[in-house]
Amino acid sequence: MSGTFTKSMARNIFYGGAVFFFLLFVALTFDTTRALPKYDNRGAITPEVALGKRIWEENDCIGCHTLLGEGAYFAPELGNVYTRYGNSKEAIMAFIKSRPKEGIPGRRSMPQFNFSDEQLNALAEFLKYTSEIDTAGWPPNVQG
User: 3-class secondary structure for the chain?
Assistant: First the structure.
């Protein structure tokens, strides 16, 4: 090998590297799509879960709460709220329903959204669904 680095050598390294990393990307993508189904042990998304997610988004719950670490840190993490409330959808529904009409002076508090029973059930189903996601130990404590 000569002591000089030529244009053709540089071009070969570039093209060889580009082909190598493209093939690596394709292989990792294929491996991920093949492995994903065995991690999805939560079951199918029901219409109630989909409605609960829509309610979550329409009411901007993520503007105050975090869900699986994403969102605002104004209010508690809700990724584990179902287990925190003793695996009870009824407890979640009762908590949301019990919010006062007006905020508590001097405290941050969740507003009253006046959800119907169907909406409350859907939101509780959505939070139950998210609590069953394998988050590898997130949140780090029970309180969120």
Answer: CCCCCCHHHHHHHHHHHHHHHHHHHHHHHHHHHHHHHHHCCCCCCCHHHHHHHHHHHHCCHHHCCEECCEECCCCCECCCHHHHCCCCHHHHHHHHHCCCCCCCCCCCCCCCCCCCHHHHHHHHHHHHHHHCCCCCCCCCCCCC
Q: How many CB atoms lie within 10 A of CB 88?
A: 14
CATH architecture classification, 47-131: Orthogonal Bundle (1.10)
Which pair of tokens denotes residue 55? 């309610």
Structure tokens at 96: 């949301």
pLDDT digits (tens, 9 = 90+) for 55-112: 999 999 999 999 988 888 888 889 889 989 999 999 999 999 998 877 778 888 888 8
Taking the model in full, what pTM does it have?
A: 0.70
CB hemisphere CA count around 112 (13 angstroms)? 10
Residue 130, number of CB atoms within 10 A of its CB: 21
